[in-house]
Amino acid sequence: MMLVNLKSRKTVSRLAKTLACTAAVGALCAFSQAANASETRGYVISWWHIATSMEGGDDCPQGVNPNAQQVFVRILREQGFPPAEIEKRLIEHQEKGPAGGGYGKIMPMRGKDKDGNPVNVYQFPESAKDPNLKRSQSKIAYGFNLDGVNSPDDFTDPETKETGVDNAFYRATGCIDSFRATAGVSRPNVPGFMWEVTREHTPAWLVEVSGIDDYKNDDEVYVSFLQATLPATKDAAMEVRKNMTMFVDKGSRMNAKIRGHIKDGLLVTDKADEVHLIPDPYVMPGYDFRDAKVRVKFNEDGTIRGIFGGYLNWLSVYWGSGGSNGSTWEYSQGADLPGMYYAIKKSADADPDPKTGQNREISASYWFDAVPAFVVHPDDNAKVAGATK
Amino acid sequence: MLTLAGCAESDSTSKQVAESKPSVAAQDISVSGPPILRRLTQVQYANIVTDVFGPNVRAGGRFEPDLRYESLIAIGTSQASITASGFEQYDTAARSVAAQVLGNKELRNAVMPCTPQSETAADDKCAATFLSDVGHYFYRRPVTAAELQPLVKMASEAAKATGDFYAGLQTGLSVMMVSPQFLFRQERAEPAPGGGTRLDASSKASRLSFFLWNTTPDAELLRAAEAGELHTQKGIEKQVDRMLASPKVRQGVRAFFTDFLELDKFETLSKDSQIYPEYTSEVAHDAQEQTLRTVVDLLLTQNGDYRELFSTRKTYLSPVLAAVYGVPAPSLYNSRDGWTPYEFPESAGHAGILTQISFGALHSHPGRTSPTLRGKALREVLMCQRVPAPPGNVSFNVVQDTTNPTYKTVRQRLQAHAGEAMCIGCHKLTDPMGLSLEQFNTVGGFRSNENGAPIDTSGELDGKKFTDAAGLGVVLRDNKAITSCLVDRYYSFAIGRKPTKPEAAWLNAYLKPKFESLGYRVPQLLRTIATSSAFLTVTPSSNEPPAAEEKKAEGSPSSPSVKEKQS
Prior knowledge:
heterodimer; A: 389 residues; alpha+beta; 8-stranded antiparallel beta barrel; two-stranded antiparallel sheet; 27% strand; elongated; B: 567 residues; mainly alpha; two-stranded parallel sheet; two-stranded antiparallel ribbon; 26 helices; globular
C-alpha cells in the first residue's frame, strides 16, 4: 500500500518525515522546515457555517430583525385582532410556548391565496407579504471577488483586504440575530446548529491539500474536497476527533480538486467551475457551488481554517437556512421565514433567468475549520494523506 | 508478594523473588491447600448464561463490584459475600434472564427438553426435566432431588396462579439463579483412595472449567466428572488437552489478564477532558481490548514467549486507538469487526504492553503522567513486588506543579521532590522505570517534549540501564521476577487463594523452572497447572498460613487511598 500521493520521487523519505511529524514532533513540525518534497495533508472538516461578520460594528445600524414573538404580534395586528386580544394571546403564548395564543395555527397559515384563503407560508413563502427584513449594511465580509466587479453591494474582506467581495447571502441574513457571530469568537446559532446536525449524520467532509513544497510560498498546490465513508467521530469535548483514519468514498459526487497557490502562508485557489458538497439533505438540499474559490490558513496546532466561496442556487440556500423546517425553526430561532425568503431572493446576484430577470444564484461564503486526519483512498492502492498534530 | 523493604535500601531492588528449592515433584500430593467457596464474577455469570441459553440472552444489570484482594479479583471472589441490596440485583438479573428464555417462544422451543401437557397448567414432570437439565450447568453438578423438589413446587404453584406453565417455570428458573449453589462455587473435598483428600469430581470439573474457560463446565466435562474420569491422570490430561484446544481458552486467558493487569480499573478511570479530549469511554474500552488482543495473539495464536509481551511491536488497532496513537490505519478499511492487526514502526517508540494506552492511562493521574505510579505498577502488578506507601507528611507540591518554569519536565520535578531525604529511597524503586515511559502521555499518546523541554527517557531497572521504553522492555524480558510473578499469579488465579507454604515451595521448585523449560509458553503453563496434583488436591482444613503472610510484615501494604496519593 502506498501511503502518500506525491509528485516527487522523494515520496518515501518525505513520508517518513510526515509520519514522524505526526507521531513524534507535533504541531509545529510542518512549519519548522521548508518542505523539500511535495507533501499531502489530510483533514476532516469540523465546522462549516456562513461566513458572517459582526466585526465592523456598523452592520445593523437600525438593529436586528424582529424575533418570533415580535413577528407574532405583527401578524395578529395585520389580521385585525384588537389590542386587548393581542395582549391576551401574547401572554398565553409566553406561558405555553408555540401551543399558546393560537401561535401554532395562525403563524403557519398566515399566507393568503388569490382568493384570500389561508395558505401555509412555509410551503408557499410568497403567499405572505414581504416584511422587508433589514439587511446587513456592513462594508466588510469574508469571501472573494467572484465576478471581478466592484459593485455597491460588495464587501471588503477583513483578512485579505480584497475588494469587490461577493457574499450576498451574508448581506441578506446579516441582521437576523441567530445568523450573527464574530469570526473566531463565536459561531452563528442556526448555521452552527445545522452543521452539528449535518456532521452527526452525514459522512464526513474531507479536505486534502496536496503538492505542498513550501508552506510559505508555493505556486502550485491542490485542494480537494472529498466525502468519507462514515461520519466524523467526536472526542470528549464533543469536537471532531483529530488524527482519525478516514476513508474516501470514491462514489460520492463530492470529489473536487482545485488548483491553488500559497503566498505568504495563505493558500488561495483558482476558481473551480463546479464543486459539490454533500450535506444532510434534511438540513440542506445540497451545496452545488459554481465558480467556487477557497482559501486556507495552516494553523500551528495542525488544524486549518478556511473560507469557501461561490455561487449557489438561492432557493437551496433558503431551504438550507431554515425554510425546510418551517414553524419549528421560525419559533425556536426567532426570525420571519417568509421575510428571509424574500431577503435571500432579492439579494440573489448571479445567473439571471432569461425570462423573468430574477437572479437564480446567490453568492455565499462559508467558514470552515478542519482537524488533521489520515485520509485514505482505499481503491487507489490505499494512498494516505498524512495528518499533522 | 516480595516487599521491597525499606525505601532507603534501594539496593534491595536487585533482589529477585526468592526461590527456595525443596525437593518437591510435579505430582506431590502433599502440596495442597483448603477447598474454598467463591462468588461468581460478573463476567462468569454472563458467560454461564451465554453458554446455557445462547448469545441472544443478555445477563444485564450490574452486580456488586468484584473485590480485588491480594492483588487479584480471583482471590477476592473467596472473600466476597452478597449483601441484601446485592441480592436484589441478582434477583432482578435472574428474572430478566428467565423472562428472556421462557417468554420468547422461539428461544423457549430451542432450550426446552420437553413439551408440557398444557401451556396453561402446571406440569411437574416437564418442569423437573427442564430445571434438572439447566441446573446441571448452573450448579456444575447434578441437581439433587432435595434441591429440585422445592423448585418444581414453586414453578407448579406459580403456573397455577398465572394459568401459564412457562410463567411458572420462569419462577423456578429465577429462584435457581439466586441460589447459593449457582452464585457460589463451592468446592467439596472427599477422601482420596490412596490417602489424603481430593476435590470431588464435580469440584475438579468446576475448577478446570473456570480456570481455563472462565465459565461453567460443558457437557463433556460434566460427563467425564460423573464417570470418574477426572480422578485419573489420564482422564484429567485428556480433558485439559481438549479444553486447551477449544476457542473458549481465549475467554479464560482474557479473564486472567484482565484480572492480572487490573484492567477492571478502567471502569472508574477518568481523565481531564479539557486537557485530553481524545480520551473517551470508547478509548477506554478499546484500550483494554487492544491489550487483551495482543496477549491472546502472542500467547495463544502464536504460542509465543510470555516475555515478548514487553517488547513486541505487534498489536491491534481500532479507529479511535489509531487516532490516539496518531498513526494511520488503512487496513481498517477491510476490517469486519473494527479492528486490524498493526505493527508499530521501530521509530514510533511503542513496543510492548507497557507502551500501550492501557498501561499508560491506567497508571497516570487525570491530567498528568506519573512515572512513580507507572513504576509502582510495574513492580507490584508485573513483578509481584510491593512498594511501601509514602509517609503521611510528605509534600507533593513540587511534583504536582506542572507549570513550574524551573522544572519543565516531570523528571526535573521528581528529582527536586526526591531530593527530600524521606522520599529518595522509594522513588529509586519506581521512577527510573517510570521515567522511561514519559514519552507516553496521560492517555497513552506519544509526546516528545513536555512544556517545550525534550523528554529524557533513560532509565534503570535493578542495575540495568536503558535509554527508552523499548530498552525497558528488553531489560524486563530478562528479569526473572516477570516470569516468576506470572506463575505466582496464574496459580493463585487458578485456586482462588494465596498459595500455602507447600504450594509456594512447589511453585518455586517445580513450576517456575518448568515454565522456563517450556520457553515461557503460557498454554503449556496452563496445562502443567491444570494437570498437577497441587491444583486438584485439597486439605480438608488447613491451619497452614498463606506463604506470603510472613513477608507482609516487612512493609505496609498499600491501600487504594495511599496509592491515589502517591505521585
